[in-house]
Design goal:
Order of helices and strands: EEEEEEEEEE
Distance between the termini: 42 Å
Strand content: 35-45%
Strand order of the largest sheet: 3-4-5-6
Radius of gyration: 20 Å
Largest sheet: 4 strands, antiparallel
Number of helices: 0
Number of strands: 10
Shape: extended
Structural class: mainly beta
Length: 153
């Protein structure tokens, strides 16, 4: 059976754009769905959906913008692109650790543009766009190596 796990975390007002006070719907486009061939929407996938509260997060580490989530052996790697953080949670939502440290020192990244997982080696590869480097960490967040590039393009 296919299990879908959704990490869910609500930050009341912390992520809202407070400059937006009203919405003008007069310019909204209307979409006609009356000629749809399928009147039923298949929501069977929702029966396996579960919500997990994220736990053990410090206030300064609140997630602002989830860019991507990878599930590797019931460890969830969550990339907060806005704050350039990668968190590792277990299936119960408990924060296990962060990957690396933000900064300008050895083994630190400045601004993460993306990341990927090397499951065979249990490594996280982090693309630091500001320093034009790929940093490698183990699943516990310990720095392994840095590969510097002259350019990414």
């Amino acid at each position: 059976m296919k299990q879908i796990t959704l990490l869910f975390f609500i930050f009341t007002f912390s992520c809202a754009d407070k400059s937006v006070t009203s919405l003008d719907v007069s310019t909204a486009e209307t979409i006609d769905i009356s000629n749809s061939k399928n009147d039923k929407v298949d929501l069977d996938f929702l029966k396996d959906l579960s919500f997990v509260s994220l736990k053990n997060i410090k206030t300064e580490d609140y997630i602002a913008e989830i860019h991507s989530v990878f599930n590797i052996d019931n460890k969830f790697f969550v990339f907060d692109k806005k704050k350039s953080n990668i968190f590792v949670f277990d299936a119960s939502g408990m924060l296990l650790n962060k990957i690396g440290v933000r900064g300008n020192g050895p083994g630190e990244y400045n601004k993460i543009s993306d990341f990927c997982i090397n499951k065979n080696k249990n490594e996280v590869l982090v693309v630091d766009e500001n320093s034009m480097a790929v940093l490698t960490y183990d699943f516990e967040g310990n720095f392994i190596e840095r590969i510097k590039f002259d350019s990414f393009f």
